[in-house]
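URGENT: need a sanity check before tomorrow's submission.

F., can you look over the ABC transporter substrate-binding protein record below? I want to be sure the sequence and structure line up before it goes out.
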Amino acid sequence: MRQPSVIARRVAVASVSLAVAAGAVACGPEDNDAKAAGNDSTPHKGGTLTVLNSNAQQDFDPARLYTSGGGNIPSLVFRTLTTRNRENGEAGAKVVPDLATDTGRPNKDATVWTFTLKEGLKYEDGTKITSADVKYGIERSFAPELSGGAPYLRDWLVGAADYQGPYKDKKGLSAIETPDERTIVFHLNKPEGEFPYLATQTQFTPVPKAKDTGTKYEQHPVSSGPYKVVSNENDGERLVLERNPHWSAATDAERKAYPDKIDVRSGLDSSVINQRLSASQGADAAAVTTDTNLGPAELAKVSGDKELAARVGTGHFGYTNYIAFNPKVKPFDDPKVRQAISYAIDRSSVVNAAGGSALAEPATTFLPDQKSFGHTPYDHFPAGESGDPAKAKELLKEAGHGDGLTVTLTHSNAKDFETSPEIATAIQDALKKAGITVRLQGLEDNDYSDKIHDVKTEPGFFLAHWGADWPSGGPFLAPIFDGRQIVKDGANFNNGLLDDASVNAEIDAINKLTDLDAAAKRWGALDSKIGEKALTVPLFHPVYKRLYGKDVKNVVISDWTGVLDVSQIAVK
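Structure tokens as predicted:
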């Protein structure tokens, strides 16, 4: 997942990003008192679920959304070839069939993937969903006026690099074949064992060509899921969904669709959302949020109230906050300087600055602490919880900085508890003990994002974060460390400008694997290998704490999204 500050559309992370990240990690809601409370009775159909959010559900068009696993609210309307498993914790990080009968059938080298649609699939108007509709839905996502979705298809599909969508090119993509109305075949440029994960993105939503209204389609997209759009006001600020009468649970093992109606209200201040969920009065008793966390002060208050504490959902998402180095900038071209900073970091103070141990978990690996990512524990520069300034001074002396060092740390001024002044100050204080004077350069969020993602302006020492497009090491390591993904004239995410032939080759080798468990182990080993280069200093993984209304039942929080899944909630 691209960083939330760069692409705020990622609703899943809340974050990814974010998320939610939405859009962000240790075995899901294991300490979740809310899980037990939310499942204390048999869920029933009926009622209205209210969703209280800060950010509007903008661009409600499957072509324009950038949502892993199909998204949260979008997944109620848009079904895809595959989707995320709707279960708590680790089990929820698996990819499962959705419109398709399975998660795809690869050829020998994973360059061709074939899917078969289930029988009996229908749109909200009762017409049949066909493979041609899936193909058309993907093709329209290439139209410049519908940009915003995941970029992988342009890179992965044969001949898709310069395709401009069906409005300009009526021939369509020859890389996608539909030999019959239930079969769809994808031809890829190179082996991609994780194609089933990509097929969870909303670009794989079927769109009937006859009902496509271009940029106006987001006002009333044709539903393939359990709910249809009856109202979309102010570009997703108020979104009202009601049941799709032609959706059949017999074809959908993932979405429970308990409420009769979903009322999404956005543009609210985060403190107001938490106040309303806490009071849980009227319609708010059956309300949730998909993008607003409890802050440190709010969490302290909630923790002291037994009833409120029982209504807090705890989740983890594949997301890492870290220090990034640009080794092209002195003195960070010297590995010993980077290693010295790695030893000097006081992760306990950083965690406190991020809101405390309830909201952040210390990290020494770049990959999040989840099995699906292939997490392999390592700590190449062990400094305990509070840092090792003596070891840092020793390395600085070896690097020719025995009298100390002065550096500049670039961060965002956004109050996000991630790349913000609180985190920067904690790092400044820790490095001072090692003889490193840190000058802080705080930038407004857009300026910060532009600066750190341009190879021409990228600073030598700055705060960054990254979240996964799906729960695997691939979309976590490749964008950050694959030398072929260095972008010289655009948004670049390979901050360390690493272009190591052995790393690139291992990424290619893992991508060929269709055994995702085997691939995960290789990603973990690669993470450890890259970690030795000290191109980043992992700091912490965020923990999501979110309130929900007193009448909300059947709370499910998977390690794919880290937030409660609205497709599982009952309110009656």
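My own read: DSSP finds 15 helices and 18 strands in the chain. Residues 1-39 have pLDDT under 50 and may be disordered. If you see anything odd, call me.
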